[in-house]
Task: inverse folding
């Protein structure tokens, strides 16, 4: 296989990949937009698996008594609703919606949890009891103040919400936030001041709607939006079944109902996630549900219910868990809970993507620029594969030298393809030419292409990561198409230096002439970081090809004298 066929196969893989992604997005399975009915299940009547009672509204206090609390740290700004003590908004202060520019030096931060109807996503928690009062995620709590801020020099911030029943049962829901951390500790403290034993369960759940359909001004903007292809839905982990995704369209057909010890439940999207993490040794029940309220879109719930808690009169007990609302940073996630780093969803290509991400991360520590790190990665890979690539170019040069003799074989055998192939193989053997020399570089190129694509698409470190000049986001397409044009020029120069190989039929020759334009179109839609990789890689190959060709021509000239 010569270099020409290598390019053709690579182009075929790239085009096939684009078509597969587009087909999955446009024609693959999607959640059914269920029409809510008056008798549909509501949040007030969703049955909690593993516990006898339903999640009832609890307190009869009206909506007017509920209020919103703002809690700020150096990395998070939360909004907690006293109705249920639910976290209804989370703004990630280190991650702006748009890149910082001179015109927009302080863009709004990403809002992960959101109480807006179109993007509803909330982290809820509560208690349920079979025969007693219990504050669930609809009960109104009381708080001492409506604003909390982590002060300078302060490492932790406590936010207490209190509920008291007429019988004497008291529950304090305490959130603890830490400096520089996206992990929030939750402690539901039960103080039984009543005259009878209280039995119940603690639960934590994430509830959200499916993402609204994005609006694009043109088709190019639509197909270059890489967030369309990332996973958006629920996920969970158990030590036995490991990491499992639960798309919204499978909530009804394949509902989750599983006892788990040492796991977590989450809602995922590109770059960010929210996750409830119970204590490692706690035996919980994980479940999923679809909630329909009249006049609203379906809400999808993934829930963790803890074991039964029994509190005698005059005694206390508590239920703890951790809530993570933040970016998918692998170094941090793997220290929080087992398997949480798997939410960085590289899919089947993680075997290639994870090592590439690790190498890029190490290079970024040295350079401080992810674009420069990509360039260094190219040089490193070319250094490792230099010997194999050299063999590919040398084989191509030898085959061009054999072109007159191969043309003579064609004239001799005419349409007898079998004899023609046998004669060519004998010629290759005699001249020590390996036509398959281009296969190994292809086997290296394809995994790197796909692996790096997923790294650029799903690694939050590369989100809005600038390079130089006009490249302000390596995870987005080149806004001015400079890099795709550069790569096209590199391919044209390669074709000029290395003309069509011997034995190539007219159809392949036409495809080779068309390939630069085809690659220009393909790379219009890919992340600029990926195109940067292939521009630099193409230049390295071009220099190596020029060097090998020049050396071969010098050897031929010397032999002729």
Result:
């Amino acid at each position: 296989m010569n270099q020409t066929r290598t390019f053709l196969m690579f182009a075929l893989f790239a085009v096939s990949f684009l078509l597969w992604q587009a087909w999955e997005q446009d024609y693959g399975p999607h959640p059914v937009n269920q029409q809510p009915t008056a008798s549909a299940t509501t949040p007030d009547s969703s049955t909690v698996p593993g516990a006898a009672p339903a999640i009832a509204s609890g307190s009869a206090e009206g909506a007017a008594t509920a209020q919103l609390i703002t809690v700020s740290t150096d990395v998070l700004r939360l909004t907690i609703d006293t109705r249920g003590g639910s976290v209804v908004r989370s703004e990630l202060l280190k991650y702006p919606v748009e890149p910082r520019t001179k015109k927009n030096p302080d863009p709004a931060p990403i809002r992960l949890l959101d109480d807006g109807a179109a993007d509803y996503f909330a982290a809820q928690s509560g208690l349920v009891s079979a025969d007693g009062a219990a504050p669930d995620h609809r009960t109104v709590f009381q708080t001492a103040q409506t604003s909390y801020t982590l002060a300078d020099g302060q490492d932790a911030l406590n936010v207490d919400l209190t509920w008291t029943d007429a019988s004497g049962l008291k529950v304090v829901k305490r959130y603890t936030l830490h400096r520089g951390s996206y992990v929030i500790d939750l402690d539901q403290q039960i103080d039984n001041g009543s005259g009878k034993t209280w039995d119940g369960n603690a639960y934590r759940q994430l509830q959200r709607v499916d993402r609204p359909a994005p609006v694009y001004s043109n088709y190019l903007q639509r197909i270059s939006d890489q967030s369309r292809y990332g996973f958006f839905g629920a996920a969970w982990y158990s030590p036995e079944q490991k990491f499992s995704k639960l798309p919204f369209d499978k909530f009804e057909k394949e509902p989750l109902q599983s006892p788990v010890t040492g796991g977590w439940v989450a809602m995922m999207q590109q770059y960010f996630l929210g996750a409830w993490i119970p204590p490692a040794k706690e035996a919980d029940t994980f479940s999923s549900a679809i909630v329909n309220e009249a006049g609203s879109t379906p809400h999808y719930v993934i829930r963790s219910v803890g074991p039964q808690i029994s509190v005698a009169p005059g005694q206390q007990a508590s239920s703890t868990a951790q809530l993570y609302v933040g970016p998918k940073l692998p170094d941090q996630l793997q220290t929080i809970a087992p398997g949480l780093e798997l939410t960085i969803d590289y899919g089947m290509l993680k075997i290639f993507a994870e090592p590439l991400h690790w190498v890029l991360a190490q290079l970024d520590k040295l350079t401080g620029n992810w674009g420069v790190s990509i360039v260094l990665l190219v040089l490193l890979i070319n250094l490792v594969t230099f010997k194999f690539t050299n063999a590919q170019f040398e084989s191509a040069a030898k085959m061009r030298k054999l072109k007159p003799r191969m043309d003579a074989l064609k004239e001799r055998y005419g349409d007898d393809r079998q004899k023609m192939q046998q004669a060519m193989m004998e010629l290759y053997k005699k001249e020590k030419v390996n036509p398959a020399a281009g296969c190994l570089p292809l086997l290296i190129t394809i995994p790197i292409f796909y692996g790096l694509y997923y790294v650029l698409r799903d690694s939050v470190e590369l989100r809005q990561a600038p390079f130089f000049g006009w490249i302000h986001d390596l995870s987005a397409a080149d806004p001015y198409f400079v890099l795709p044009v550069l790569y096209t020029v590199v391919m044209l120069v390669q074709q000029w230096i290395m003309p069509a190989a011997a034995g190539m039929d007219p159809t392949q020759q036409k495809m080779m002439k068309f390939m630069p334009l085809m690659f220009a179109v393909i790379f219009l839609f890919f992340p600029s970081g990926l195109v940067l990789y292939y521009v630099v890689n193409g230049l390295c190959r071009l220099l190596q090809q020029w060097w090998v060709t020049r050396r071969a021509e010098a050897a031929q000239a010397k032999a002729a004298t």
